[in-house]
Amino acid sequence: MAALRFRIAMSLDGYGAGPSQSRENPLGIGGERLHDWVFPLAAWRAPHGLEGGEVNASTAVVEELLDNVGATIMGRNMFGGHPGPWDAKEPWNGWWGHNPPFHHPVFVLTRFPRPPLTLDGGTTFTFVTEGIQAALAAARTAARGQDVALAGGANAAQQYLNAGLVDEMVLHLVPILLGGGEAVFKGVTDLHGLQLVHTVAAPGVTHLKFARHA
Amino acid sequence: MAALRFRIAMSLDGYGAGPSQSRENPLGIGGERLHDWVFPLAAWRAPHGLEGGEVNASTAVVEELLDNVGATIMGRNMFGGHPGPWDAKEPWNGWWGHNPPFHHPVFVLTRFPRPPLTLDGGTTFTFVTEGIQAALAAARTAARGQDVALAGGANAAQQYLNAGLVDEMVLHLVPILLGGGEAVFKGVTDLHGLQLVHTVAAPGVTHLKFARHA
To answer: Among residues B177, B33, B174, which one has the least CA distance to residue A208?
Structure first.
């Protein structure tokens, strides 16, 4: 069955976003530093329509993460915008502009119903109000045999981790302190069989890959 | 000048000890799992008077940590025992028995005065009530040109980190969740120039070495 794969960048003190997240500052104060290692990479720039970039020890990690993914699941906060029911007059359509980098079906966990949203480049957003199991089932069907990526944020990831539904986890450990923000493992006390299988040291980041013990 | 070197084992969720620490359970619930990687090592067993043991990728890390250390600083909670003034009738003499594994002068940060304690094997405990700067100065003198180890616990480490006095930091990142306990970087928001210089993947642990940028 298609694996559910979770990846997240995390500070040394365990945060996946800095303090004081807002629409203007979606990653929180200092949170953008969690992603400094990825932006220069050619492997990251290409799917975002950008030319050039670096090749280093992170390249194979990013290529593997992007490979064989047929659908994505994310939480409402990662999709972003305002809290509460969707604004029908000025709908929030995500952080990513008219051509988001997913290029496959994306399922957004929310308590508030909304019709599907189709943007350019093959990205569709489907809003799921029936919970994490329903979203995973829909994503698996949509992925047509490929894997499903769990994009975050922390709250959505914690729900899947606590349900034991995550098959693979990659932590991009960034050697900085954020001092507060969104704790990646808040309320999670059990990895449900996920074990460290691979570590990659790269410029500005250490990649830790976890998988279920065979 | 002799470097102040801090090392600590830390869970994925950032704890250096589990929840509910006590005299009976000094590492907190589950906290002993932070040290599972080190106990089998020959490099750890030898200074503890034990024969045999394993050699793996952690060996060089442990040897480097034990090398060229002439004195150790630790907080009151790591020395252990009861809170408040020292019990004169039944004095707490540390967790380590009559022959502690330090074999050099150890300086314990405390608010409560106590005469020095000399145990077997060259380990002396000196109780410092004048704060972290005084303890560091005394330890540097006692180290006679070698480095000073900052053994922990978290509170003592946080004071030295926040004062920018730590010259080298090694995190032994253990791929488990503790779900609570003593947060290694609680209240620390700045690494004061410490940068990741080296990563070593080993069985059950990933070692991250930080040093000041030259």
So the answer is: B174
Tally of domains within chain B: 1
Q: Which of residues 181-210 of A touch B (CB under 8 A)?
A: 183-185, 187-191, 195-196, 198-199, 201, 204, 206, 208, 210
pTM of the model: 0.90
As a 3-state breakdown, chain A gives helix, strand, coil percent values, each rounded to 5, of: 25, 30, 45
In a domain, A94, yes or no: no
Q: Kind of pairing, strands B15-17 and B147-152? A: unpaired
Q: What is the pLDDT of residue A128?
A: 98
Quote ipTM for the complex: 0.85
Which CATH number is B130's domain given? 3.40.430.10
- Touching check for B29 and chain A: CB below 8 Å? no
Q: Do B177 and A199 touch (CB under 8 A)?
A: no
Nearest chain B Cα distance for residue A175, angstroms: 6
